[in-house]
Amino acid sequence: MGGRAVMPYLLPLLPYAAMVAHVCFDVGVSALSKAAMSKGMSHFVFVVYSNALATLLFFPSSFIYLRLRRKMPPITFSLLCNFFLLSFFGVTLLQNCLYTGLNYSSPTLAASINQLGPAFTFLLAVIFRLESLDLRSSRSQIKILGTLVLISGALIVVLYKGPPLGVTTTHSSYKEPTPLIALKTTDKWLIGAIFFVVANLSASMFTIFQAVILKEYPSQMIMISFYLLFGALQSAVVSLIAERNLNAWKLRPGIELTAIIYAAACAMVSYSAVAWTIQKKGPLFVAIFQPLGIAIAAFLSCIFLGETLHVGSIVGAVVIVAGFYGVMWAQSREEKQIELNNAHQRQQVSSSEETPLLGSHRDV
C-alpha cells in the first residue's frame, strides 16, 4: 500500500530523472571517447563501432518485444525515409561533428557549447509550431531573454578562456605560454567550437524531428531501432571515405573497447529516455537540461583527463545557469497555465452536460 501511495508523487518526477541520467551518460561518453581518441583511436571508427553495437543489441530485442505484445505498427516507405533523415541529423552529422570537435578541444568546451541547444531548439520549435510564442506574454519574454543569456554564456566560454584557476603568476613552476603556442591552442579551441555549434544545431533538428515523427508514429522502439541502423550504415560510408588507414579499424582492448561498449549502452538508454520524454513533455523540455552537462563535464575532465579549469569557463557557466533557470521557470509557468485551462474546459463541458438533464427533469 505504501508503494502505491508514493507512486503518484514520483511519476511526475520521472521526466526530470530521465533527463538528468541522459545528460550524465552523454558527458560520460564524451569523456571516455576523448580518452580513447587521445590514445590514437579514430573518431570516425568510434562512431561506426558504437552505433553498430547499439543496433545489434537494440534492433532485434525491440522487434521481438513488439511482436510478442502484438503492437507492431505498419511501416511505410515514407516513414523509412523519415527515419533515414532522422539518422542523418542525430547520428551521422551530430556524432561526427561532436567527436571531431573533441579531437580539437575538450569535453568541457563541448558541454559549454551544448548550452546553445535550448536556443536552437526553442527557435525551431516555434518555427515548427511545437511551442507557442506570444511576445506580449511575460513568460514568452522571459523565454526569449533566457535564451539570449544562454547564448551569451556559451560565447563567453568560447571567446574568453581566461587564466587557469589555482595557478598564480608568482608560482615558480608556472610559465606564460609563448605567443605561437597560445595561437595554436586558440585556433584548436575555435575549430572545436565551430564543430560543436554544428553538432548542437543538428541535435536540435534531431530533437524537433523526433517530436514531429512521434506525433504521427508513436512507437518509440521502432523509431530508435531504425535510426540506429541507418545511422550505423551512414557513418560506415562516411568513415570509409574519411578514414583510409586500415589499421585504424583494428580494435584494441582497454580504453578504446571500453569507450565503445559504454557508448553503445548509453545510446540505447539515452535515446529511449529522450524519445519518451519528448512524448511526455515536448522537445524544449529535453533541451533545457543540457546546461547541467557543463558542471559534470568539468568535474570529469579534471579527474580523468587532468584538465585545468579557467575563469572564462566559470563565468560562462554562471551566465548559462542564469539563462537556464529563466527558461525553466517560464516553461513551468506555461505548463501550469495549460493545466488550469484544460481543467477549466473540462469543468465547462461537465456543467454543460448536466444542465439539459436538470431541465428535462423539471419538465417531467
UniProtKB/TrEMBL annotation:
Single GO MF annotation: transmembrane transporter activity
InterPro entries, per the entry: EamA_dom, EmrE-like, WAT1-related
Residue ranges with Polar residues bias: 342-354
Record keywords, A-Z: Membrane, Transmembrane, Transmembrane helix
Topology with respect to the bilayer: Multi-pass membrane protein
Residue ranges, annotated region (Disordered): 342-364
Transmembrane segments: 9-32, 44-65, 77-102, 108-130, 142-160, 189-209, 221-242, 254-277, 284-306, 312-330
Name under which the protein is recorded: WAT1-related protein
Similarity field: Belongs to the drug/metabolite transporter (DMT) superfamily. Plant drug/metabolite exporter (P-DME) (TC 2.A.7.4) family.
Species of the source: Turnera subulata
Cellular localization per UniProt: Membrane
A Pfam family the protein falls into: EamA
